[in-house]
Amino acid sequence: MSAIHRRTKILATLGPASDGALKMEELLRAGVDLFRLNFSHGDHAGHAARIAAAREAEKSVGRPIALLADLQGPKLRVGDIAGGQIDVRMSSELRLRAAASSNDPDIIPIPHPELVASLQLGDKLLIDDGKMMLHIVRVDGDDRIARPVAPGRIMSRKGIAAPGRPIPIPALTEKDIADGHFALKHGVDYIALSFVQRAADVVMAREAFGAGIPIISKIEKPAALDDLEGIVQHSDAVMVARGDLGVELSPEQVPIAQRRIIRVARAHGKPVIVATHMLESMVEALVPTRAEANDVATAVYQGADAVMLSAESAVGRHPTAAVAIMDRIIRAIETDRDANPSAQATSWTATPSTADACARAAQRLADDLDCPLVVFTRSGSSAQRVSATRPRQPIHALTPSLPTARKLALVWGVSADLEPEEPKSFDDILDAVNRHEAASSVKRFVITAGYPYASDNSTDTIKVVERK
Questions:
Q1: Which of 138, 161, 184 corresponds to the end of one domain?
Q2: Per residue in 377-386, pLDDT tens?
Q3: Active site residue 138
Q4: Active-site residue among 165, 218, 331, 385?
Q5: 276 in active site
Q6: Of these residues, 7, 36, 124, 360, which one is catalytic?
């Protein structure tokens, strides 16, 4: 364990720049806590090889790491245009039609009938990440008539988006379901769900993958902000997917949305990841811009559980340097004397559960006594509850479950160790603590656990241990 206990976790995306167990081990030693597999790219054979390499690297560093399978979700795209592209003038009047292709230069084929049908007079349609913007000026039967905001070019197969207009398309495609089951079969710990617009999308994912599968909802559509509370309640964690969110929101609205998503996730005690463009310049450069360093710092100050590297670690020229610099930024912010983790704590209901009350009491004890917390947990929920209180002290989680230890790699402030022997008494828990170097040398610490110790009871016991 390092001299400074880093609480905010680092999620790194795997790709060609980070392939192989040796490279992944290097990234883990530089500070990565969990890896992301992007199922928008690559095939199953490639993902299987990366999963195997990540588990090999996990064994080498000797600590549990989590793997996150990020599903592609439905991709809304322009159909096939004759010649592959058309040049659009300001005076152009284009007909948007639900079709896979078109040979007419005045007809833009859109192979998504639901999208075309949802467009109304005055709506905007963004093409190719907003490089081309069309205004809907008329509804003509099943077609929509649009005019460009500025001249430009529309090309086949480019992405499209309708800001502010919920699209009646499910968040899971057949590809996503196949990818998700493949990833779970190969031992990933989280499924990240794209294109979430409503809580019902998360419910559908649970029906597809199973009730006990941890689901991370990616907030990347403005429509999701209208049902944010419901989405967070039904999810195990959320991700602020700022890249896609920024396509449909104006630039000044993205930081407001980020702060709101983090605040709602924290209020429900759910882990939250801030993603996209964190150290983007390091795809090529050896150092980030000062604005990027400040961006990472803002996420830490706001209470994010994890910050994510995308292209920086997947295809960048300096993946290890990007991780090391992100690690340095986080540590610097967390040791800032003005930083106040308790200000990020979960908002408690008027009648918290026994487990919630014990977590809060353990946090206050540990902070008052200036000593670490040790949490014995099977499912991970006890450690997550303690994390939600945002103590100033380190949280050491001991668990007999390897999947639980891995999942806790995402949770703020928690260092998880595998404890294969089930405790039958409090003395057994003390013996388990002594077997782990991170806590064995500490003279005083606070332990929380459920009693009886070998049962699945929620946390109801707190004890302060004083060593002589």
A1: 161
A2: 989 999 999 9
A3: no
A4: 218
A5: yes
A6: 36
